[in-house]
Amino acid sequence: MPPDAQFDAQPPVTTSENIVAAIVNEIDDGDVVLEGIGTFLPTSAYMLAQATHAPHAVRLCPVGNIFVAEAHRLSMAEYEFDTLRRGVYRFTYWDVNASYLPTFIPGKPGKGKWKEFLRPAQVDRTGRTNNVVIGPYEAPKVRLPGAAGLPDGVPIEPALYMYVPRHDRNCFVAKLDFVSAPGL
């Protein structure tokens, strides 16, 4: 092998990198993008979009229900503190879900677009999702982050995207252990 051949080789693209790239491609300048709790792939994509082609995209973070207009470091230890320090405006949960977000439904004249990217734990063939428990609800094997806004958002949110990093029988199931959001 020639001495400089090692510098020509590129590491393989990971599933996570492909997901981030796909999400970045869906974000337009001026979009309001919603973050979930602990969803670092979409958050990375949002920040990359802000740094490249969508500088006026704003993130709505569940940490404090605040808008964040600038990128910051992603770390498990500092993420919440950095988000809170950079908040442009803080809302109550009611303000966010009942008053503000409904005005950002795509297609309304003069309104921006809001988009959300979610990772469900289970998906059935109708598109229903589970992000609450694996196993029986009363005695689950695993308790998941929860439904959050899924039951409310899925029926009305035209710009809601689902991504699943692992395509296996644990994710794509015939019957959900718990229905946390309706299908299509």
β-strand number: 10
Please give the largest β-sheet: 6 strands, mixed
Rough outline: globular
**Radius of gyration over alpha carbons?**
18 Å
What percentage of amino acids are in beta strands?
15-25%
| Largest sheet: spatial strand order | 4-3-2-1-5-10
Number of helices: 6
Structural class by SSE content? alpha/beta
Rounded to the nearest angstrom, the distance between the terminal CA atoms is 53 Å
Q: Show unreliable segments.
A: 107-111
Question: How do the SSEs run, as a string of H and E?
Answer: HHEHEEHEHEEEEEHE
Helix content: 25-40%
Average pLDDT, to the nearest integer? 81
Describe the structure.
By secondary structure, the protein is α/β, with parallel strands linked by helices. The chain contains six helices and ten strands; from the N terminus they run ααβαββαβαβββββαβ. The protein has a domain of 114 residues. The strands form three sheets. Strands 4-3-2-1-5-10 form a six-stranded mixed sheet. Strands 6-7 form a two-stranded antiparallel ribbon. A hairpin with a 5-residue loop joins strand 6 and strand 7. The N and C termini lie far apart (53 Å). About 3% of the residues have low confidence.
